[in-house]
């Protein structure tokens, strides 16, 4: 389907023609540019989307995201890409972010039952760090819960 596409030679050689299972990061991916683009048929296309399409065909639904199975957002190895929803994409980023910083950023899956459990374990001597890992939440989030800086008001559902 892309037989006639005029693609950046780098992309053709290193992505289309690759067999590696290692991450492929474009040398054109400038620092901070998370979505390197490839010139394809004169259009600037996100390399990760194009690479995903090579492997998996076009996105099954409009608005789907090229998600990574690896943690490297700039990676354009087609073997590391799959079509996912916005939610999956955000989850990917959260996981990737957590591996980089040691933290996750989502507190949305917490409930009062879990918050009470975390506080009880903390009062029983558990560290906020170990609780953060156990419940897959940010260490700062666990600290806030244990110190009642977050999830203070039951009537607001924990939104403070
Ligand atoms: Zn990768």
Tell me what you see in this structure.
- There is one protein chain.
- This protein has 160 residues and is of the alpha+beta class.
- Helix content is 38%, strand content 10%.
- It has helices at 9-16, 47-56, 86-101, 112-123, 128-134, 139-146; strands at 37-40, 43-46, 65-68, 81-84.
- A hairpin with a 2-residue loop joins strand 1 and strand 2.
- The protein is elongated.
- It starts with 8 loop residues before the first helix and ends in a 14-residue tail after the last helix.
- 22% of the residues are buried.
- Residues 1-5 and 100-107 have low confidence and may be disordered.
- Zinc ion binds next to loops.
In short, what is this structure?
This protein is α+β, with helices and mostly antiparallel strands. Helix content is 38%, strand content 10%.
Radius of gyration: 21 Å
Strand content: 5-15%
What are the low-pLDDT stretches, counting only 5+ consecutive residues below 50?
1-5, 100-107
For the secondary structure, the number of strands is 4
The topology string of helices and strands comes to HEEHEEHHHH
- Summed up, the helix count is 6
**Distance from first to last alpha carbon:** 52 Å
Helical proportion? 25-40%
| SS-derived structural category | alpha+beta
Main beta sheet: strand number and arrangement? Answer: 2 strands, antiparallel
Q: Mean pLDDT across all residues, rounded?
A: 77
Could you give the order of strands across the largest sheet?
Answer: 1-2
Bound molecules: zinc ion
Which term fits the overall shape? elongated
């Amino acid at each position: 389907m892309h037989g006639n596409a005029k693609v950046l030679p780098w992309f053709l050689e290193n992505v289309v023609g690759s067999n590696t299972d290692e991450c492929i990061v474009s040398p054109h991916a400038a620092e901070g540019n998370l979505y390197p683009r490839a010139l394809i048929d004169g259009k600037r296309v996100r390399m990760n989307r194009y690479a995903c399409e090579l492997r998996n065909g076009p996105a099954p639904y409009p608005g789907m995201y090229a998600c990574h199975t690896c943690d490297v957002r700039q990676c354009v190895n087609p073997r590391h890409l799959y079509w996912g929803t916005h939610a999956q994409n955000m989850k990917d980023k959260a996981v990737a972010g957590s591996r980089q910083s040691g933290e996750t950023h989502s507190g949305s899956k917490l409930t009062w039952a879990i918050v009470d459990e975390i506080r009880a374990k903390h009062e029983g001597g558990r560290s906020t760090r170990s609780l953060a890992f156990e419940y897959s939440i940010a260490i700062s989030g666990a600290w806030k819960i244990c110190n009642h800086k977050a999830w203070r008001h039951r009537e607001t559902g924990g939104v403070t």
